């Protein structure tokens, strides 16, 4: 550390520039991680924050379009309900709809058709719970669109009218669209394409998109239930992948993050390579004096560690500050301690790896070169 | 302190009688050969060299460029392994030691003074000396500041090399070489970058420290002016060593 710290102070401009680059990369990492978490919440908070542990889809539906294509029946729900390890099995209908508020402002909504008294229906934090057909409990985030309790929302095309009776406590979105929890029967009518006043065949009230499941003690045995009900069930986490855009968005974010980590390691490695080359002469002198390779390597790696930990800490701090400002805005941004910490550790770890490889050149410096003319 | 003898006893032949204590403490090269390359390109940088330097003795090595002077220092200090022959420093045979053992040996027994000082740019004068303490892992027998004082650099203790003159750097380099109380001091062209007056000062200083600390010192130089301060002068030509009558 003796030499490491003095060299940091001596070449502070160079190390400062390098530190600034690493700090900026850390800021980006924090922002990306916040954006990724935000996208998850925005994309699937409706599933993430529901008590549902698994979803049974229609057998054979493809993963990427499962929620829109799948259709299950009450018979299948009853088969699931008959499983010993299933506590609750309920039909859940999903549909993304375009609607207009009282004043004509367009509104995108995901209808979640659920049993009004069932386990999937969330509590109302504002207003009251849904009791009758034609009523809707909206995600609290819909208030940002100007929706208020008492508003009547009209669905495009069908003209179905939904009265907003309350809001959930936290954000409930699906595919980045606010969820409107409506009675299952209302959803079934919309699903069948019925306009108001039209009478329906009884089988209309027999279907849902999926069977929402909750086990008696942890998630139920999906294979056994599938065999009994003829469905294709997935855990709630696996069902995220079936949400609109979810996989593509997350993959994009992860790819950017991976590139950032790679760039960071390479930049740090390149910097320390140049730095070590620049120090070749003094390294040769120290080796001639009898400094062991271990002494010099330890010093070099510690120097990199001080630089990395310092700049990543500063960058993460700035990133968290910026993130806190973003959290209140329309941006899908959620700061979470664990992914931010993981990102910071990765930056330090990969940077150290890059620096260690570069500093390894120390072991090939020949002490004899310290003698003779001043090259 | 050993009184260095102004004789030519220790050069030229391997049969010269040497004070046994001096042989144990100082530097002894016996029949050392160092060749580079092979076949037609082979160069004998050192050609059957014998040299004895007693503690407290300052021996100057002169000779034309390419004669093998730096090679002599490299072999004597355990930086380069000779092709054949024996190198003993303070009673230890260096030939056959591993690289790691050689590094440790240099650390504890050999001091180097390089051309133009070769100081670490980031360190102040006093820190150059403290760095050696860090490398050896023990305190200098003479405190760093006292050593700087001995070379007349105490008032510049907090200056980095960039703010020191060539002669001042060389002084710090000498003080640094003495931190580990070495048995042998190897000095490569210490006055190459200095004017006449500074050159005399530096070599006088080297002679004084050599005598005071009882170090066996070998100094390579092109500068014939400064030879008066040396106890003995040897000349190197084409890898061969011969005494010079003063
Ligand atoms: N690493 C090496 N590989 C091949 N030949 C070398 C090497 N080092 C030195 N030599 C050769 O050995 C001979 C002696 O070199 P050395 O550096 O010891 O000379 P010198 O007396 O110190 O010269 P100068 O006064 O110019 O510093 C020269 O012919 C040189 O070319
Ligand atoms: Mg030379």
Automatic annotation (TrEMBL), chain B:
Domain (ABC transporter): residue spans on this chain: 27-246
Keyword list, A-Z: ATP-binding, Nucleotide-binding, Transport
CDD domains recorded: ABC_MJ0796_LolCDE_FtsE
GO CC list: plasma membrane
Domain of life: Bacteria
Keyword set includes DNA-binding: no
PANTHER family, per database record: ABC TRANSPORTER RELATED, IMPORT ATP-BINDING PROTEIN
Protein name: ABC transporter ATP-binding protein
Organism: Actinotalea fermentans
């Amino acid at each position: 550390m003796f030499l490491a710290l003095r060299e940091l102070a001596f070449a502070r401009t160079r190390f400062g520039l390098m530190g600034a680059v690493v700090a900026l990369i850390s800021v980006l990492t924090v922002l990306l991680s916040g954006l990724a978490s935000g996208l998850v919440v925005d994309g699937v908070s409706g599933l993430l924050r529901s008590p549902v542990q698994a979803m049974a889809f229609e057998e054979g539906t493809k993963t990427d379009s499962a929620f829109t294509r799948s259709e299950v029946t009450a018979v299948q729900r009853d088969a699931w309900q008959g499983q010993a390890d299933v506590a609750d099995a309920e039909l859940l209908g999903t549909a993304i709809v375009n609607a207009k508020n009282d004043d004509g402002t367009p509104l995108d909504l995901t209808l979640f058709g659920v049993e009004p008294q069932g386990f999937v229906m969330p509590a109302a934090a504002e207003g009251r719970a849904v009791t009758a057909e034609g009523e809707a409990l909206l995600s609290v985030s819909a208030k940002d669109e100007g929706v208020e309790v008492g508003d009547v929302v009209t669905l495009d095309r069908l003209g179905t009218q939904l009265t907003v009776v309350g809001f959930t406590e936290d954000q409930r979105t699906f595919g980045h669209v606010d969820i409107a929890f409506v009675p299952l029967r209302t959803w079934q009518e919309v699903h069948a394409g019925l306009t108001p006043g039209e009478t329906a065949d009884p089988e209309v009230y027999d279907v849902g998109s999926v069977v929402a499941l909750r086990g008696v003690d942890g998630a139920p045995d999906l294979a056994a239930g599938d065999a009994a009900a003829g469905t294709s069930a997935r855990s709630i986490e696996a069902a995220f992948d079936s949400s609109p855009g979810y996989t593509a968005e997350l993959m994009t974010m992860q790819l950017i993050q991976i590139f950032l980590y790679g760039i960071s390691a390479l930049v740090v490695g390149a910097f320390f390579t140049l730095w070590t080359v620049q120090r070749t002469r003094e390294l040769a002198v120290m080796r001639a004096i009898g400094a062991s390779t271990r002494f010099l390597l330890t010093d070099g790696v510690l120097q990199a560690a001080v630089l990395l930990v310092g700049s990543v800490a500063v960058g993460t701090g700035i990133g968290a500050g910026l993130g806190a400002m973003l959290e209140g805005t329309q941006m899908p941004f959620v700061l979470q301690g664990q992914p931010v910490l993981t990102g910071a550790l990765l930056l330090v770890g990969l940077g150290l790896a890059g620096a260690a490889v570069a500093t390894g050149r120390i072991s090939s410096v020949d002490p004899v070169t310290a003698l003779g003319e001043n090259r | 302190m050993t009184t260095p003898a102004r004789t030519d006893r220790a050069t030229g032949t391997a049969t010269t009688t040497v004070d046994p204590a001096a042989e144990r403490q100082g530097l002894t090269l016996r029949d050392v050969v160092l060749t580079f390359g092979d076949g037609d390109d082979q160069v004998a940088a050192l050609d059957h060299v014998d040299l004895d330097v007693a503690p407290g003795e300052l021996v100057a090595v002169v000779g034309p460029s390419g004669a093998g002077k730096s090679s002599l220092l490299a072999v004597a200090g355990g930086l380069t392994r000779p092709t054949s022959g024996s190198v003993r420093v303070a009673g230890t045979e260096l030939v056959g030691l591993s690289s790691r053992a050689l590094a440790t040996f240099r650390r504890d027994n050999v001091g180097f003074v390089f051309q133009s000082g070769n100081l670490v740019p980031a360190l102040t004068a006093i820190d150059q000396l403290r760095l050696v303490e860090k490398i050896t892992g023990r305190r200098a027998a003479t405190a760093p500041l006292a050593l700087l004082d001995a070379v007349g650099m105490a008032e510049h203790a907090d200056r980095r090399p960039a703010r020191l003159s060539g002669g001042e750097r060389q002084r710090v380099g000498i003080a640094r070489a003495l931190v580990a109380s070495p048995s042998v001091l190897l000095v490569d062209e210490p006055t190459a970058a200095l004017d006449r007056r500074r050159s005399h000062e530096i070599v006088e200083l080297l002679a004084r420290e050599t005598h005071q600390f009882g170090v066996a010192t070998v100094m390579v130089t092109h500068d014939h002016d400064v030879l008066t301060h040396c106890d003995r002068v040897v000349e190197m030509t084409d890898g061969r060593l011969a005494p010079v009558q003063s």
